[in-house]
Design a protein that fits this description.
Length: 576
């Protein structure tokens, strides 16, 4: 028995036969071309760029469907690489300057950049070279007219995948295969491959140096994604130990199943609405099976992706109505599309070409108020869908009262137009705002006369409050939901809204964290909207708490000066 220690990239245990994946063979030869063919060669390279852009659009749609909007942003890193001068300028110049084929020019440019990455001491920036390789590999496959391998086609039995390296695009295909876990020679905890594995709930260990050479297909292995270990040829006692650990995990999962349909109520009788986030219509069947109290956040961005023009009103109305009808009479909070200005060109609309910081740029309500035709079309579609059930409208990225007033005016115009056309729709529909910008949280009282409810988007609120990009693993340790400033803003929003008779929902990853639930419950939030995969765990967490003691605990947490104090208080009361 051999134990190899690596880096724990994604938790979980996998026991089975190894499948050793051979590296893709991509042979690039230098071909010198006559000068009269060089422009055609540049044109061929640009065609490959366009095809790669389409690949990324498809990859983004897949990530959005599987994992949601936040992880779809990972594809933006690949888009930036594809638009970088390294690709757009350096490769065509090398083709013309050296008189060589596009494949060779691209591989030379990629190798030059790879050497720069290798010299970097920081792990986060070294790991970004795998994103560069992913884009380069896509480009080469189009230039060489090679089809991309599909792991689901080449692997026909449950196994532990062993590879020298897996690129993010490889990892995305794992959920369709019979792979129960994977281990790689290369990679780190900060890689996009590791982040995707965690979200797909695939056990993974990376950074094992030479495991792809030490194993052959068919060898028995245990992959321990919790401890970051791979055990080769384990003995019977070791296998039995890990099988018991797997069994306990399955028992815990079965215990959660009994909570379907049970009320989300604390031990002392305080009730909460427990709702689910919805990223795409394909998820609705599994969400209905959870017996949720509603949809607390219906993200509509998927309708605006991978298309040359914005979705028409009829298409949107049909999509929303299907969800609303399926949930009726439970509420569905439909958020107007939170797309950025960089999407406008893809939709055939003039927009900003290169925003330095798109996350704080022309996005959400800012974009829709500049393109009111897009906004009104979506509002009309939502109003028409509201005839099928209980609909609430949510406006994202709000930073000023004027934006809310403008949104109200457009909503009134949409209602008036539909009424003039003889269309049926409820005369009253609730309008709410996302509180995800610190200034909005601080000035909430000024917004409340114009809204019916508020929904706190914890992901953006935390990263904007703490000035931390949550996708940048270089500073991920600073992304802290328990930071006193974050706790203060959450409590301020909830108490301010309640004083004015407005209900408060919370969405974002904080609601899906069982450790954070006691704080949110103690603050008296009305609704928690969570990821479907965490729904039953969060219900279990709420049902194990007593609201009375926690209402006082939130006040104590507000007196703490750092997050470690808050965590210790939670631990002392058995809440972590």
């Amino acid at each position: 028995m051999v134990v190899i220690k690596g880096i724990a990239a994604s938790p979980g245990i996998s026991i089975g036969k190894a499948y050793v994946l051979e590296d893709d063979e991509i042979v690039v030869n230098r071909i010198e071309l006559p000068r009269e063919l060089l422009r055609a060669e540049v044109k061929r390279f640009k065609s490959a760029q366009k095809a790669t852009h389409r690949d990324l659009d498809a990859a983004e749609a897949k990530v959005l469907k599987l994992l949601g909007k936040q992880h779809a942003k990972l594809i933006d890193a690949h888009r930036l690489i594809l638009r970088d001068t390294l690709i757009t300028r350096e490769v065509p110049q090398r083709i013309i300057r050296e008189g060589v084929n596009a494949e060779f020019a691209l591989s030379e440019s990629l190798e030059a950049v790879n050497q720069q990455f290798e010299k970097m001491e920081d792990e986060f920036f070294r790991e970004r070279r795998h994103d560069l390789f992913d884009v380069g590999k896509r480009l080469l496959s189009h230039l060489l007219k090679q089809s991309k391998r599909s792991l689901s086609n080449i692997i026909d039995s449950n196994c532990v995948l062993i590879a020298r390296n897996l690129l993010p695009s490889d990892t995305l295909g794992l959920h369709e295969s019979k792979i129960s876990g994977f281990a790689t020679d290369l990679g780190g905890k900060t890689s996009h491959t590791a982040i995707l594995a965690q979200s797909l709930e695939i056990p993974a260990v990376v950074g094992l140096s030479d495991i792809s050479r030490r194993l052959k297909t068919g060898d028995q292995v245990i992959l321990d994604g919790d401890q970051g270990m791979v055990i080769i040829n384990p003995g019977p006692e070791t296998i039995s130990k890990y099988q018991r650990a797997q069994q306990k995990s399955l028992q815990d999962e079965r215990a959660l199943e009994s909570l379907r349909g049970q009320p989300t109520v604390t031990l002392d009788g305080k009730s909460f609405r427990l709702e689910a986030n919805l990223d795409a219509p394909e998820e609705i069947k599994s969400i209905l099976a959870l017996q949720v109290d509603g949809i607390g956040l219906f993200r509509t961005e998927y309708l605006f992706l991978n298309r040359p023009a914005p979705p028409l009103e009829e298409e949107q109305a049909k999509a929303y109505a299907g969800i609303v009808k399926a949930l009726d009479p439970r509420p569905v909070v439909i958020r107007t599309a939170d797309i950025g200005g960089d999407r406008l060109a893809d939709l055939g609309i003039d927009g900003p070409k290169n925003e330095t910081n798109p996350f704080m740029g022309l996005r959400g309500v800012r974009l829709f108020l500049r393109h009111t035709d897009l906004f009104k079309t979506q509002l009309r579609a939502i109003l028409r869908a509201s005839l099928k059930g209980n609909v609430r409208i949510l406006i994202p990225m709000v930073s000023s009262v004027g934006e809310v007033q403008s949104a109200r005016r457009l909503l009134s115009q949409a209602q008036a137009e539909l009424q003039a056309e003889g269309a049926d729709f409820p005369k009253k529909i609730e309008l709410g705002i996302m509180v995800e910008i610190p200034s909005t949280a601080m000035m909430l009282e000024a917004f409340l006369p114009f809204v019916d409810f508020v929904s706190i988007g914890t992901n953006d609120l935390i990263q904007y409050t703490l000035a931390v990009d949550r996708i940048n693993e270089h500073v991920t340790h600073l992304y802290d939901p328990f930071h006193p400033a974050v706790i203060y803003l959450l409590d301020h929003v909830i108490q301010t809204a309640h004083k004015k008779g407005r209900w408060v929902g919370i969405c974002g990853e904080m609601t899906s964290d069982p450790q954070a639930v006691p704080l949110l419950v103690g603050m008296g939030v009305d609704s928690l909207s969570v990821s479907p995969r965490m729904f039953l765990r969060i219900k279990q967490a709420v049902r194990s708490l007593r609201y009375g003691p926690l209402s006082g605990f939130a006040a104590k947490a507000l007196a703490c000066s750092d997050s470690e104090q808050i965590r210790r208080m939670l631990a002392d009361q058995g809440l972590q």
